[in-house]
Amino acid sequence: MRVVVVGAGLAGLRTAEHLRAGGADVAVLEGGQRPGGRVRTVRAPFAGGQYSESGAEWVDTYHRRVYELMERYGVRPLGQGEQWTTIRRWLHRDGRLWAREALAAAEPGLFEQLDHFERLVHEAAAGVADSAAPQLHPEAAALDARSLADVAREAGLGEIGTLLQRRDSQGEFASEPAEVSLLFMAQQRAHQRDAEAGGEVFAHRVDGGFSRLAEGLAAELGELVRYGHTVTGLEQDADSVRVHANGTVHHADHVVLACSLVPVRAMALAPEMPADLHAAVHGLGYGAITKTSVQWPARTWPAGYATTAGLAQRVYEPTMNQAGEQGILMAYCGGDGGRSWAALPETERIALASSEMQAMHSIAAAPLGGYSRAWSTEARYGGSYAVYRPGEVTAYWEVLRRPWGRVHLAGEHVATCTGYMEGALESGETVAARILASG
Question: Contact, 226 vs 33, CB < 8 A?
Fold first, then answer.
């Protein structure tokens, strides 16, 4: 059996690994010059051996596939980890950092309102019996028609509560609250509920960066991974698929599109996709994240995430558990903010982030260097990760997970654990098993 896998991100690499183990003849075509896709650790221009993640940044306790890869390649988690329920520690507002107690005094009932919001989401998640099939929720259509902005209004969030919930949406889903389906958020919570089996969830960064995982998988696959091969079209019939890349035609029994759906939209396809699949591929939402990291000569800021009413949205230290006197601060901007930052040149983003960080933490020193990556402007990705907007779970969830003849989709966008490295690996395993079972 001959299979062509398009994309050398974690989904494509895991698909190829499992197909090869099952006896298939595999080729991985990657348009770029490195493995990993949206997993990308940045080491230059930082001093002292420090680094930050320009893409995927965390592994959660229940992400067993990622932990298995970490063990395989000797990649260890850093520090004690973070619990997302306690990660919001500061709000930079009106020129100063506000701690939890000050926020509660400034907006009475703030945390009760946020708890109400979470209860509404929990109630929706309780009806998701199978997180792999949220469209089967008994109230799927009604929940899918509602957005997180609708839930925020029902919870009665005030000014500060609305800001904090908006920042949560921009961070978790890389999208504005109005762009996120309540059914999708319920599905995500249901998946976590089922996967963690009642235990506490901690999120970790890793020693040396997550790129080590993709580099390890790619090294094992060796010459099966071909870089600089951009796929421009597919032709399939009842017996085979022909893949066009860089003027060359690759013949295969199956093709796995283990890439973002954004470049798939530009491919020449014969025959054309069925109408429902075309609508899903061309319609599914992608969040926008712009991550800007700036290194400083000394760590003069308090521990913990700072949410800001300013343009930087969220500022935190990715080098918390790394050695060295220097330290890096990250400005993480999603949704409308991510798109606004993406429209600026990288030098302007770094300057803007540096200015907000200096104001937030009273940093007098000049920055040592930095970088900024806007995933929405990169043609091979077109966004950070998938977000199912109102109406899209019921319309797109199931159709995206079905094969189209001899063409299969893989990637976080068709996983149960959508939006995560764990989901990318999960999708690769699912597709490889389906193809091998087909004989």
Answer: no
Q: Determine the pLDDT at residue 413.
A: 98
Query: Residue 254 phi/psi, 5° resolution?
Result: -145, 155
146-161 CB burial, b ≥16 within 10 A, e <16: bbbbebbeebebeebb
164 in any annotated domain: yes
pLDDT of residue 30: 98
Last residue of a domain, one of 135, 168, 198: 198
Backbone angles phi, psi at 273, to 5 degrees: -60, 150
Which residue from 408, 418, 162 is spatially nearest to 287, judged by alpha carbons? 418
By the 8 A CB rule, do 89 and 306 touch? yes
For strands 231-236 and 268-270, give the pairing. Answer: parallel
Q: Which of 306, 289, 318, 319 is nearest to 358 (CA)?
A: 306
Q: What is the CATH number of the domain that holds 186?
A: 1.10.405.10
Q: What is the pLDDT of residues 73-110, one digit of tens each?
A: 999 999 988 876 544 568 999 999 898 889 999 999 99
**pLDDT at residue 15 is higher than 60:** yes
Task: Give the number of other CB atoms < 10 A from CB of residue 300.
Answer: 12
Q: Quote the radius of gyration of the chain (alpha carbons, Å).
A: 22
Quickly tell me which residue has 């926020």 as its tokens: 103
Q: Is 51 exposed, middle or buried (0-12, 13-18, 19+ CB in 10 A)?
A: buried
* The residue count for the chain: 439
Task: Report the distance separating Cα 316 and Cα 205, nearest Å.
Answer: 13
**Domain housing 392:** 2-38+210-285+388-437
- For residues 155 and 120, the answer to whether their CB atoms sit within 8 Å is yes
In a domain, residue 67? The reply is yes
How far, CA to CA in Å, does 69 sit from each of 59, 341, 426?
11, 33, 12
- Residues 33, 14 share a domain: yes
The mean pLDDT of 219-238, rounded to a whole number, is 98
Mean pLDDT over residues 46-69, rounded?
96
Check whether residue 226 and residue 279 sit in a common domain: yes
The backbone region for 269, taken as left when phi is positive above 0, alpha when psi lies in -120 to 50, beta otherwise, is: beta
Same domain, 263 and 399: yes
